[in-house]
Amino acid sequence: MIEPSDSLLSPARREVLRSSAAALAAIGLAGAGLGTSRSGQAAAAIGKRFPESFIWGTATAGHQVEGNDVNSDTWFLEQLQPTLFAEHVGDANNSLDLWPVDLDLVRSLNLNAYRFSLEWSRIEPEPGQFSLAMLDHYLRMIEGCRTRGLQPIVTFNHFSTPRWFAARGGWTNSESPALFERFCEHAARHLAKPMGHATTLNEPNLLRLLGWLDLPPAMKDVQRAMLDKAARTLGVAKFTAANAANAEDINVMQTNLLEGHRRGRQAIKAARPDLPVGVSLAVVDDQALGAHSRRDEKRAQVYGAWLEAVKGDDFVGVQNYERAQYDEKGAVPPPHSVPLDGMGREIYPASLANAVRYVHDQTARPILITEHGLVTDDDTQRAAFIPAALAHLADAMAAGVPVVGYIHWTLMDNFEWIFGYKPHFGLCAVDRQTFKRQPKPSAAVLAAVARSNAVG
């Protein structure tokens, strides 16, 4: 059974932990020192090994799991009409309170790292006003990782920003890089010392990537109406979010995000020069079809500036979920009769290794896989997908690509932004009423791989 590692656990926290531990035992995971289940025996017998120092982790993000992030731009947009959001985040997974349960769950899966984010709107709810209480909260989380033998991998900003920041135009504002630098400076002074790795931003190239998807025009219209309503409600000229912006704003946002990353990295390094700092990029396995494929045009637009910027970083965070094929007209649909995930994308295990090869070829930087996973309601798909993808990754590493770790998205089903709670990426299910974490069989698969540090 998992034993609580935090002596301050409330009775409610203890009950969630107890029930989650019982679920772990039911699928053969008996705690921090896993019993040898069939999955563990199989993994131990196979030979594609990873380096002894390899990072095995899982990830969450503040707004998606903490709950009641009432000062953030995303919370505000969720309340509006019209809105792109299918539902409100509400209590999310109650991880603001239940983070010790989450860390014990990560530990029980034989993982040695946990990636999570700082919620900027909690730390700086009003411009220039920094909450010591919330900085201490995140410090307890970081130290809680360390006491459990987990490396804390901390994202300084995972999409959501303070409402006041978005009301100043968000990343369209020429002052946004300096505002982000100020936040990173305060946070790093308080938190950087026990961190393992840090990323400044999560998928700052996402809006460019979305521009290459065939999104319904109605979706763009609702987004424009939502952002206009936000600006009118607050009496400001422009309200823009990092993951919700109109097409005409994307170029200036990228300019400011690039500078924000540079200045944020500088601020974090000033607080602790030896802390490895990078940025996490959304990277599709882009493949060319025919002599006049638009693949390289897409790569230049979506990744080009960022692959240049990260050459000054200690590592590059790669986040991959799919492959896409491009002919002379653009993206082509997935091949007929291939398995699809819960968003209609091809399930293609080799995509991660291909994305990692591409990024390393372009940057010559070490790679940390900061997200990779599968959205599906059929956990047998996830259980098969994880080892298949890791086998391809092991081959890429054997060929010389320096990958320092693998972090799975996500620890548990959570709030997936505009889609709400319907998409399921988690290794664990979550009861929306009790917040009980229920490990799925795929959790045992990843745990067995991490335990043996090998895959077939």
The end-to-end distance, rounded to whole angstroms, is: 29 Å
Which strand-content bin applies to the residues? 5-15%
Q: Spans of 5+ residues with little confidence (pLDDT < 50)?
A: 1-5, 30-45
Treating each run of at least 4 consecutive H or I residues as one helix, how many helices? 17
Q: Approximately how much helix is present in the residues?
A: 40-55%
The strands making up the biggest β-sheet line up spatially as 2-3-4-5-6-8-11-12
Can you offer a commentary on this structure?
- The chain has 456 residues and is of the alpha/beta class.
- It is built from 17 helices and 15 strands.
- It has helices at residues 11-26, 38-45, 62-65, 73-79, 95-108, 120-123, 132-147, 163-167, 176-191, 206-210, 217-234, 250-271, 295-302, 304-309, 351-363, 379-398, 441-452; strands spanning 48-49, 55-59, 113-117, 151-157, 197-202, 277-282, 285-288, 316-320, 323-326, 331-332, 367-372, 403-409, 428-430, 437-439, 454-455.
- The strands form 4 sheets. An 8-stranded parallel barrel has the order 2-3-4-5-6-8-11-12, surrounded by 4 helices.
- Helix 2 runs parallel beside helix 17 (441-452) and helix 16 (379-398) runs parallel beside helix 17 (441-452).
- The longest helix is centred in the middle third of the chain and has 22 residues, at 250-271.
- Residues 1-5 and 30-45 have low confidence and may be disordered.
